[in-house]
Design goal:
Growth Hormone, Chain: A; globular; 0% strand; mainly alpha
Length: 408
Amino acid sequence: MNASPASAGHSRLLFGLIIGLVAIGPLSTDLYLPSLPAIGQSLGANVAATQLTLSVYMAAFALVQLVYGPLSDRFGRRPIVLGGMAIYVVASIACALATSIETLIAARALQAAGACAGVVLGRAIVRDVYGREGAARMLALVGSVMAFAPAAGPILGGIVEVHFGWRWNFALLVALASALLALLAFYLVETNKQRDPTALELGRMQRNYATLLGDRRYLGYALCVAFGYGGLFAFISGSSFVLIGDLGLAPDTFSYFFAACVVGYFTGAQLAAHFTLRLGIDRMLVLAACIKLLGGTGMLAATLVGAVTADIAGAAFLVAPMALYMCGMGMGMPNGQGGALGPYPHMAGAASALMGFLQMACAALVGIAFGHLHDGTPLALAGLVMFCAVAVAASLAFLVRPGAERRT
């Protein structure tokens, strides 16, 4: 049975801990975004090499969580979360002290190995407590609150970069993660009431993942999440190079443009929190996909007609459609996650891990693609966002098939 909402799910403390766990992933990328050009200059790395600090992070995040999910199904959420956060603190210290781009890339991979425990198991904890429809609503509420983390991240990171330098952004992550680890150690309760003693058996893991991949609707929901996040990561990995490097914005000015996109995400998450129970997961996903397509189309069109120029107004033509895309993502991500996790309470960790793997693998591939396609113009960024919007719509139409009855 799920944990009692009265004792755990409605606890403000548990809600705050989940926000911290889920927010650590976005903060690990968003806080140092304004520093990417400076990191390249400081460590003598080109755009493609510097961008690998993002893509390698996402690739490691994708792979390691495939293990965290079954581990938490076997031993519980709490010990795995604590171990992951301890790894994260050590890795963040290594990032702050890195003296070469290779060292920083390796430290970022280790940082991802720690951060993904919080993100993937934070979702599983919500599923443990709330069930399918309730999880979608609660994930939307968590998303709407934690939207302030990626909004504040680039702004704070830009200020730190301008006044102190890029290493202090990683030092700030060390401080935040250490405080979160202490709170988790004292206050996080175990929510996995259906531990699976066979979850780590290789054959069982293969069967679990095969079951998930064989479920057309699970795969469709997971790909909606993955490609939706891929469009966001195109902006995360490319926006500083385009807005700062190509269009000449200052790092702190860039941060406010990035924050405008997060306002779009916050708006979408609020809409999801208020309307998911009324309209249902599938209808919300259809609406979210349409909004993403509008944003991607507007972004690509503005780039092709030359509206994106090296000034504030020109940058707005790129960022405003991205904010619309982010609104669709704020609506779609919690509903995609809730739809995927809902039918699998007995292996919520594995289901969350596989979904997260697809999400981060897509992000890593998009980031690598940007690093190789970027030509000093916004075209690669806009094209990748549009591609992801189309992929979301295709996943929804051909795999989820809104309105079709899920086989149980």
